[in-house]
Specification:
Blueprint: H1 2-26, H2 39-51
Length: 52
């Protein structure tokens, strides 16, 4: 119980702070590859690869 309170919980709190303050502010707003450079070309290539 002490290890969880003194080690695990603070580590998770630090991880949460990182995600909120550093990771999420720089993350893309969309998951679609189309939003990336050459995204439409990527999708066209994927369609050709998986449908032929």
């Amino acid at each position: 119980e002490t290890a969880i309170r003194e080690q695990v919980i603070p580590a998770y709190a630090k991880l949460l702070t990182f995600f909120r303050n550093e990771y999420m502010v720089k993350a893309r707003k969309t998951l679609a590859a189309e939003a990336l450079p050459n995204g439409k070309a990527f999708y066209r290539q994927q369609i050709r690869q998986f449908t032929t």
